[in-house]
């Protein structure tokens, strides 16, 4: 967070013009010296500060030793921890060196209206990578001039985590809890990520779906502290300069959205920033990636929803979306500028783009060999396939190679899952042609087939279009999902159409009946309702169980994905390996409870295994 943003006397957000916006200190997180000699390893592998510089940059000869038992973040790279063990002093120093630097005297003194000492202390208190509340060490309080800015009490970090958890339990609504959690994230990073690690099951639905959907809808009026980077279509030709304002010099994953297809909510424009911000938090809480290695970005090219553009509080450009060449020029400039600053191993994570742009951008940059993946197309597919593989381990569920699959909705999520499913079936010895025949797609116009009139099929849909021989069946189905279930006779029904309640009781009961008629009386259907937020889900788990008398195997939407940090490309083989890794991590207890995915609180170990299996 640049100092100009963090300082309430300077930051007035919108009133600044481009020419008047202050560039006071581009590296606010860097308070301590970058001198590696300041750091040494302790026997337990934690880091100790031998000498802490004062605010003028000189060494304090009598600074007490400070044990910095900060959480040691794991970075998924080649299936191993990126931070070295206790005997790798230099590697640890390099990882933390750039994070703990001091602003130059010139940068600090450019805050002309403020005393340098006060400015440094305020910066430290408002910097989440330094402030630990009452757990802030004495040496840090002294040398960064934080005395009096933090209450005099002393606790450990666990007490701060417990305090935050107790305070959050008093919130009256999910959105109120979201605001409180994100405020914690921007003020006390260690406490926030400790809270996420210990209570992931409680807070994952808060920092991401379903609560993040409501947060995005109200983003312009939440008074949120600025997070992430906004790059607009007006910034063409200036993207490199804008990226230089981001304070971190080491970014491993950039999460990009243009806000056009936010969850199942449609075009939210700049209000979609909650998605990359939330996904960055998920990458850390569930994936173990250090928070400073993530960069959330929103590309503002306009918004086609008039009600949002006319909202007096709207934070984005008040214009319709820019399409075509100019749009792709901006994306190109952003991608190349990111790679120029952060290197070719930077992972570009596309999030909530419309299908037309999502597929084309993914294809374009994968063909160049860039490390890039689309969460909606690939990561959701990996988790969906992992759930299908997990379901196979439950009694009564037919093997994948024997099943027929009906995908309700033919957008990015279901098309990506269908593509990865074909790869999985091929690995089991099924030909690609036969694998595609096991898959039926149904969109807003009905069964996807070659003979359908109207709008031409996209290349992705055409891959799974039924032949003209199935045109008669498709005409009988029309747009009726119930008829599709009776005629197609699937064992697995997968919904990602963002049509809340689409899987009615009649449809789910029909699925159970056709599954048992086709595969035997003990066969069990699988119902995957992947749409989010919750109100857009095709049905609930309870409904699926009730309507099948407990026979259904159910999975809801989780799009956490597999982060390929350090990889030079993200391949389908990696995603397939991730799916296998997820299913293999199911424990006997989870299978007994008929879970098809590992528990949320075990997501970190699951994705670590997935990354290792993918040989990243």
Automatic annotation (TrEMBL):
It comes from the Eukaryota. GO terms for biological process: malate metabolic process. (S)-malate binds at residues 261, 532. Belongs to the malic enzymes family. Its cofactor is Mg(2+); Mn(2+). A divalent metal cation binds at residues 351-352, 376. Pfam families: malic (PF00390), Malic_M (PF03949). GO terms for molecular function: malate dehydrogenase (decarboxylating) (NADP+) activity; metal ion binding; NAD binding. NCBIfam families: PRK13529.1 (NF010052). Divalent metal cations. Prefers magnesium or manganese. The active site is at 208 (proton donor), 279 (proton acceptor). Residues 185-366 form the Malic enzyme N-terminal domain. InterPro entries: Aminoacid_DH-like_N_sf (IPR046346), Malic_N_dom (IPR012301), Malic_N_dom_sf (IPR037062), Malic_NAD-bd (IPR012302), Malic_OxRdtase (IPR001891), NAD(P)-bd_dom_sf (IPR036291). Residues 377-616 form the Malic enzyme NAD-binding domain. This is Malic-domain-containing protein. Gene3D superfamilies: Malic enzyme, N-terminal domain (3.40.50.10380), NAD(P)-binding Rossmann-like Domain (3.40.50.720). Keywords: Metal-binding.
